[in-house]
Design a protein that fits this description.
It is built from 19 helices and 31 strands. With 773 residues, it is α/β, with parallel strands linked by helices.
Length: 773
């Protein structure tokens, strides 16, 4: 039996929280109210606030009558256990705003009756109104990243908050900040891709979109954010969900912590913990990561909640505790404030025992309870415990739908366009084929009306599949649909049925262009694990057979991760990766294929070509070494399908006149970088402008390059603009083997497009703090 858990990260000691500016400025009125409330609370009431139960715990066992709440279970939850939070959607599917209003109103009435403290209800609304029927679904986060458009992402957060609060829900488990460093992982589409800077920037936008600009006062059209999954969750060693990660301590700090730091400093009020382990330590029991790094290192007064039943994993799976009680002890002492139990309230009884036995200090309970009350006060739940749908007239509006469509248009990536196959000309006869051609489910992905994204037909009758969108745009008489391969929606997510490739080949005889829609059906979390990253054999065989017809193929990739397609990419004249663009993804694609709109997205991840080559753009030099001269053939070259930041347009852009305001700099300096961008083609278009830096020589092998800035510009043919970046020199620092941030004297290359400029740092600086401020 282990009496204590020691961290294994070896990160240098840092300054105390008192010397660090608060991530969220304290509000004296809120702090006074917390003291007042807690002065009247018993130990049982404080511990109850730390427990979060799933809504099914409160429901009537007979689900045939809908969502009805059981009065006896409600009394048990709020009178016996004093529970502070409820989560999830009834019966596992989206509910209307009125149903949500009725549920949350009933819960709040019981919570106030028995405890005198409102409940805080949490739901995974991760790309719009996941669990609110009739609301707006946006493209998934991976698509948001591909847009490289901060303003659109901020607006998506604002609309999501508005429609979530319209349903009386005050707390959303988003944004997802798991930088995805492994193409195999089943949750990569939930995040903003593989780059730390991209994830940090989009976290900033979504947090402000959800919460507004004042985290102490969440308004009636805003919700509290819960940044997840802290941290390192997106890099499991096996590529399978909720399995161990092995991450170098310096990289954990430099890359994986960065998005969470930005999210917290943008005002995020809560954080959800990684379900897995890092370097052998379950994050739910890691005092250094939860308390030293997050709470103390950022001087953050927000609240930490577990993920689903993860305290149980400490003893049932990870074997660092002998039973549930010891697992609770380890987790609460590490810094967890609220346990998503989610099916039992035994947590409360056992935690009370631990306090009385002296194994968990009363001060730790007081701290956790204060953080939970602070969240509730910031959300104004005493005054606004639930909302009325009549006060949200824009819910499900055309205005919001147009924003979702625009984000979808700006998120779909053109990867290949040989001989100007696209745009498709008017009057062209088109065959639409493949398992993703007539599926709204696959456009939305997981967390869409249900956890796995199933049962879409119940909620999506008013939206268009790719086939329907193309038929609407090019005319019913010009567009025919023959699936060739279909998904079996009554089986596992990857199951296929009705394999009739010959029918698709026959249908291709009298068309001009084939639009082959391939990829994945919807999935989420562990059920989405796979054993082979290759696209299914049936889908590849469909494309190969169609290629033999000699008709040009437009390959549409509709997938949550990069399935290997290296053997069929050469068969296509054009390739578009739509990823998971949501309900309006088909309409967006039709606009783009027709040339009504121009492509403007770029990949926020590296698309691999080989099953054994898992590569990220900020790799080390040795990860891509050409054949060496010598006595044997040595090659570490990595053959990619498409690199991070790749994406085409119907027009061309030229970069020129890259300038930096200083050739030499010191660690405290800010560099001003400007570059001219010209539209040299004959169509109007938007393009992301990406700023990279490379540290040419360092005491640790430097990354090949790092993204340090981006902007998006719209230019008419022949138009030129100057893009300006502000680059603090400290952004080019890295974490050394001693766990300290350092910027070393030497040469750096700044790159934008095909332009580059050399600059020199004149002195070395080593920071003695956890973070660079």
């Amino acid at each position: 039996m282990r009496k204590e858990v020691l961290t294994m990260l070896g990160i240098a000691a840092v300054a105390t929280a008192s010397a660090i500016p608060p991530a969220i400025p304290s509000d004296p009125a809120i702090e006074k109210k917390i003291v007042e409330i807690m002065s009247k609370m018993t130990l049982e009431e404080k511990v109850g606030q730390m427990c979060e139960l799933e809504i099914g715990w409160l429901q009537d066992p007979d689900r045939s009558n809908g969502y009805k709440l059981n009065e006896a279970k409600m009394k048990e939850a709020f009178d016996r256990y004093k529970v502070g939070s409820i989560l999830n959607t009834p019966n596992g599917e989206a509910q209307t705003p009125q149903v949500w209003h009725d549920i949350i109103k009933s819960i709040q009435q019981q919570s106030m009756k028995y405890i005198g403290i409102p409940d805080i209800y949490g739901v995974d609304q991760i790309h719009g109104t996941t669990y609110t029927a009739g609301g707006t679904l946006f493209p998934q986060e991976v698509n948001m990243a591909a847009s490289f458009n901060r303003q659109l992402v901020r607006r998506a957060g604002e609309i999501s908050a508005y429609e979530t609060r319209a349903a009386s829900i005050p707390w959303t488990y988003a944004p997802v900040m798991d930088i995805n460093r492994d193409a195999r992982w089943s949750r990569g589409w939930e995040s903003f891709g593989e780059d730390p800077y991209m994830n940090a920037q989009m976290a900033h936008e979504l947090v402000l979109g959800y919460q507004g600009t004042d985290p102490n006062h969440i308004g009636p059209y805003n919700v509290a954010s819960c940044t997840k999954h802290y941290l390192g969750y997106g890099s499991p060693k096996s590529g399978k969900d909720r399995t161990p990660a092995i991450i170098a301590p310096n990289e954990l700090r430099e890359k994986y912590f960065a998005p969470f730091k930005e999210s917290i400093q943008s005002g995020s009020l809560s954080v959800m913990v990684n379900s897995g382990t890092i370097n052998g330590m379950p994050v739910h029991a890691d005092y250094e990561l939860l308390t030293v790094w997050l709470k103390e290192g950022l001087n953050w007064d927000g609240m930490i909640v577990t993920d689903w039943a993860d305290i149980h994993n400490l003893w049932k799976r990870d074997n660092i505790a002998k039973d549930y009680k010891e697992a609770i002890e380890l987790s609460i002492n590490a810094g967890v404030d609220m346990s998503m139990t989610p099916y039992d309230a035994e947590f409360c009884d056992l935690l009370i025992e631990l306090v009385k036995e002296g194994r968990v200090k009363q001060s730790r309970i007081d701290d956790a309870c204060a953080r939970i009350l602070r969240l509730k006060l910031r959300c104004n739940l005493w005054e606004l415990p639930y909302t009325e749908i009549k006060n949200y007239p824009k819910f499900g509006s055309k205005e919001f739908a147009e924003q979702a469509l625009e984000l979808a248009v700006q998120s779909e990536v053109l990867l290949k366009n040989e001989n100007a196959l696209l745009p498709i000309k008017e009057g062209t006869r088109i065959l639409v084929t493949g398992p993703n051609a007539n599926s709204i489910r696959s456009l939305n992905g997981g967390w869409s009306y249900t956890w796995q994204g199933t049962a879409n037909e119940k909620f999506t009758s008013g939206y268009n599949t790719i086939y329907r969108s193309l038929a609407n745009r090019f005319g019913e008489g010009n567009v025919k649909y023959v699936a060739g391969v279909e998904y079996d929606n009554d089986a596992n997510w990857d199951a296929e049925k009705n394999i009739d490739i010959e029918a698709a080949v026959k249908a291709a005889a009298d068309v001009d262009v084939i639009v082959a829609c391939i990829g994945e059906n919807s999935y989420c979390e562990t059920p989405g694990n796979l054993t082979d990253l290759n696209l299914s054999a049936n889908q590849k065989n469909l494309v190969k057979a169609l290629a033999k017809t000699g008709k040009p193929i437009v390959l549409i990739l509709n997938e949550g991760r990069s399935r290997l397609i290296g053997d069929i990419t050469p068969l296509a004249g054009a390739v578009v990766n739509v990823m998971l663009p949501g309900n309006y993804g088909g309409d967006a694609l039709a606009l783009l294929l027709a040339g009504d709109r121009n492509f403007s997205a770029k990949l926020p991840f590296t698309y691999p070509r080989e099953i054994s080559s898992h590569y990220v753009y900020d790799a080390k030099p040795a990860e891509s070494v050409p054949t060496m001269d010598g006595s044997y053939n040595y090659s570490a070259s990595t053959d990619l399908e498409w690199e991070f930041g790749y994406g085409l347009s119907y027009t061309d852009f030229a970069y020129s006149n890259l300038r930096v305001d200083k050739d030499t700099f010191n660690p405290s300096d800010k560099l001003i970088v400007t570059v001219d961008v010209t539209n040299t083609g004959n169509r109007e278009g938007m393009t992301p402008v990406l700023l990279y830096t490379s540290d040419l020589v360092a005491s640790l092998t430097p990354d090949v390059k790092r993204l340090r800035g981006f902007d998006k510009v719209n230019l008419k043919p022949g138009e030129k603009t100057t893009v300006k970046f502000e680059l603090p020199a400290s952004d080019m620092a890295f974490v050394g083997r001693d766990g300290k941030w350092r910027l070393e004297a030497g040469d750096f290359m700044i790159r934008v497009g095909n332009e580059n400029k050399m600059v020199k740092c004149l002195e070395t600086k080593v920071w003695q703090t956890q973070n660079i401020e």
